[in-house]
């Protein structure tokens, strides 16, 4: 088994997931494709946390780039041999994976909070911009008849629920892939050290 190839495979998957996270977070800024709600600051506080752009996006792009850059086709080599340093590179990839863990974890937490608190919208009951579902602790997700309380932006509940759910899933997959790479990087590094000692 070659841990370098596994890392590159994880890297390409993380690259795609990170780009999707960025797109999903950007879409949260433009309910129904309208820009006025962002310019008027009528968006949920959790949209402005940039969890998909920074957390699930750029912080995951870092390990993705590191993993894709790994050229470890041989798991055995270090200490002056032809493939010197490959096990050290695999171990250092663990640090990059931790960055991805932090970013994806941030994306998961903010997405969960965004789903739990619900959207920021103009309601016909209060005649004001509020968080009408904050006290429901996420119960509103299954009470579709209450979604119509939000008048503006139109369909904001569906918009937020869909995109925050997508970001939650993307962040979860990124977290799992980075965790897998931590295990793979440790095993790959130890494999390289063991093989080099056997060759000596």
TrEMBL record:
It is found in: Membrane. Its main location: membrane. It comes from the Eukaryota. Keywords: Membrane, Transmembrane, Transmembrane helix. GO terms for cellular component: membrane. InterPro entries: L6_membrane. The chain crosses the membrane at residues 12-30, 50-70, 91-115, 161-180. Signal peptide: none annotated. The keyword Nucleus does not apply. It is a multi-pass membrane protein. PANTHER family: TRANSMEMBRANE 4 L6 FAMILY MEMBER 1, TRANSMEMBRANE 4 L6 FAMILY MEMBER 1-RELATED. Belongs to the L6 tetraspanin family. This is Transmembrane 4 L6 family member 1. It comes from Opisthocomus hoazin (Hoatzin).
């Amino acid at each position: 088994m070659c841990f370098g190839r596994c890392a590159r495979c994880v890297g390409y998957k993380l690259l795609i997931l990170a780009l999707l996270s960025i797109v999903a977070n950007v879409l949260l800024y433009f309910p129904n494709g309208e820009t006025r709600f962002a310019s008027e600051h009528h968006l949920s506080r959790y949209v402005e946390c940039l969890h998909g752009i920074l957390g699930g996006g750029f912080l995951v792009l870092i390990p993705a780039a590191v993993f894709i850059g790994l050229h470890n086709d041989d798991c055995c080599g270090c200490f002056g041999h032809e493939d010197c340093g490959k096990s050290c590179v695999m171990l250092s990839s663990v640090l990059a994976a931790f960055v991805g863990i932090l970013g994806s974890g941030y994306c998961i937490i903010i997405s969960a909070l965004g789903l739990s608190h619900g959207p920021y919208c103009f309601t016909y009951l209060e005649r004001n911009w509020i968080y009408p579902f904050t006290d429901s602790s996420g119960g509103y997700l299954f009470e579709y008849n209450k979604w119509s309380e939000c008048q503006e932006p139109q369909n904001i509940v569906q918009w937020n629920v869909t995109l925050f759910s997508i970001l939650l899933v993307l962040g979860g997959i990124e977290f799992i892939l980075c965790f897998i790479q931590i295990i793979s990087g440790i095993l790959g590094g130890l494999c390289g050290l063991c093989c080099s000692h056997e060759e000596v």
